[in-house]
Amino acid sequence: MRSSAPGSATPERCSGKQRVVPGGAPRYAFAPLDGKVHDRAAFSCGVPSLDAYLEKRAAQDMRKRVAVTHVLTPAGSAGEILGYYTLSVASVALDELPEELRRKLPDYPQIGAILLGRLAVDTRHRGQGLGELLLISALERSLELSATQLGAYAVVVDALEGAEGFYQRYGFMPFQDQVRRLYLPMRAVVELLT
Q: What's the CA gap between 94 and 70, in Å, rounded?
């Protein structure tokens, strides 16, 4: 499930699962949100809080360096937003992890993580595997950051009610007392992407 070039992706159906195919002509492109280029007002995923965030707060959060929003657009048509996700730095209390994982980690009160804060697909483009494409892009970026620029043990997501199953299909596990707060250790990200 590796992409052929940064910022480009070509989906292909294989065994009922979408994957990114190296060497194919890109149908989609990823880019950081640019309020002057991307049409935020036209995006609608059906969840008012996610729509409002993209339209009103995402660019502001980027300027303040609170979170970075990455948008998925059709290749050659940068204005239309098919989906988006946000990434930011987070930490996880060591005691939130299962004992078998804690034993393998340094005895720090908190460990570094990357927060996948939001992930949404425009309703007009549902059923095309774009949610998976967005998630794989977020995981690839997170892995690259954790390997080269900052220490992060896992990717963390605070799933909206009903979205937990989507993340669990990719190996995300719930924290001990928080069923909608999930994590995927970076070692599992490596396995998923190779």
A: 29
Q: How much is the pLDDT for 110? A: 87
Catalytic entry in 108, 167, 170, 183: 167
SS3 140: helix
Evaluated on CA atoms 169, 172, 176, 178, the torsion sign reads negative
Residue 150 to residues 88, 97, 144: CA-CA distances in angstroms? 12, 20, 9
* Cα separation values, 49 from 43, 46, 54, 122, Å: 12, 9, 9, 13
Q: Any idea where the domains of the chain sit in the sequence?
A: 8-193
AA identity, residue 35: G
Its pTM surpasses 0.90 = no
Mean pLDDT for the chain overall? 86
Q: How distant, in Å, are the alpha carbons of 68, 158, 191 from that of 173?
A: 24, 11, 15
What is the DSSP annotation of 29-69? Answer: EEEE--TTTS-STT---S-HHHHHIIIIIHHHHHHTTS-EE
Residue given tokens 């570094």 in the structure block: 112
Give strand pairing partners of 114. 89, 155
- 108 catalytically annotated: no
Superfamily of domain 8-193: Gcn5-related N-acetyltransferase (GNAT) (3.40.630.30)
